[in-house]
């Protein structure tokens, strides 16, 4: 499938039935240092290093007792939490099948399912200290549409975080270039003491993904109508 190229880079031979974009993706995977490091360290995906880098900067995982991982497949983020804080109760949810992870409870269902919040709360056994979301909506190639769909997931995650987090807890979610929109940032600022955006080094430079990090949960945000009264 592959052969050595100049500078030690791996190049993929074009094969019948393999598109040019598929070849480019394979070459990128073969030459990505984070992919190689994930394989060596036993992580299921390079995304594990995004959380490791965010944790190093924001101190997310240490001291947590219950952690919720929304859209956990293939499981790299839950693996990170498990390794850094093996005593924590970790619950993850995803539509995609996920191989078992020692010490992690996995629910195979849609996060937007009306039964999901109750199932997740039951599995956690109490309020969470950290809600993680590496979820991204399926893209359609239209930038504005993709942004709106991803923001809808982030907002749904924030609403759930408002119901399940302990005071002082944190919510971390993937957003796209430009970060969370003004309405969502305003919502998060009512709910949390600090709200910041970050692009960890493990995120590819050509990727549009950023992360919003909301820390110091204050409580449920009041509805705009209630604020006006």
TrEMBL record:
Residues 43-217 form the Ribosomal RNA methyltransferase FtsJ domain. The keyword S-adenosyl-L-methionine applies. Residues 1-20 are annotated as: Disordered. GO terms for molecular function: methyltransferase activity. The keyword rRNA processing applies. Gene3D superfamilies: Vaccinia Virus protein VP39. S-adenosyl-L-methionine binds at residues 75, 77, 94, 110, 134. InterPro entries: RNA_methyltr_RlmE, RNA_MeTrfase_FtsJ_dom, rRNA-MeTfrase_E, SAM-dependent_MTases_sf. It catalyses: uridine(2552) in 23S rRNA + S-adenosyl-L-methionine = 2'-O-methyluridine(2552) in 23S rRNA + S-adenosyl-L-homocysteine + H(+). The active site is at 174 (proton acceptor). Coiled coil: none annotated. Its main location: cytoplasm. Keywords: Cytoplasm, Methyltransferase, rRNA processing, S-adenosyl-L-methionine, Transferase. It is found in: Cytoplasm. GO terms for biological process: methylation. Its EC number is 2.1.1.166. It comes from the Bacteria. It holds the Pfam family FtsJ. Specifically methylates the uridine in position 2552 of 23S rRNA at the 2'-O position of the ribose in the fully assembled 50S ribosomal subunit. Belongs to the class I-like SAM-binding methyltransferase superfamily. RNA methyltransferase RlmE family. This is Ribosomal RNA large subunit methyltransferase E. It comes from Sphingomonas natans. The gene is rlmE.
């Amino acid at each position: 499938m592959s052969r050595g190229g100049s500078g030690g880079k791996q190049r993929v031979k074009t094969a019948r039935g393999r598109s040019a974009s598929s070849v480019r993706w394979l070459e990128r995977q073969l030459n990505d240092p984070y992919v190689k490091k994930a394989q060596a360290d036993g992580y299921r995906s390079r995304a594990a290093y995004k959380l490791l880098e965010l944790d190093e900067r924001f101190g997310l995982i240490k001291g947590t007792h219950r952690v919720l991982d929304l859209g956990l497949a293939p499981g790299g983020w839950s693996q990170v939490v498990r390794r850094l804080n093996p005593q924590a109760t970790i619950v993850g949810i995803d539509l995609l099948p996920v191989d078992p992870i020692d010490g992690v409870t996995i629910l195979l269902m849609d996060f937007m399912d009306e039964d999901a919040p109750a199932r997740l709360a039951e599995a956690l056994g109490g309020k969470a200290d950290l809600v993680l979301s590496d979820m991204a909506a399926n893209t359609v190639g239209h930038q504005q549409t993709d942004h709106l769909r991803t923001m809808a997931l982030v907002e749904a995650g924030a609403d759930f975080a408002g119901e399940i987090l302990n005071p002082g807890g944190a919510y971390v979610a993937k957003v796209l270039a430009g970060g969370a929109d003004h309405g969502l940032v305003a919502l998060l600022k009512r709910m949390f003491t600090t709200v910041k955006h970050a692009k960890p080094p493990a995120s590819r430079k050509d990727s549009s993904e950023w992360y919003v990090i909301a820390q110091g949960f204050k409580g449920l945000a009041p509805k705009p109508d209630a604020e006006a009264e």
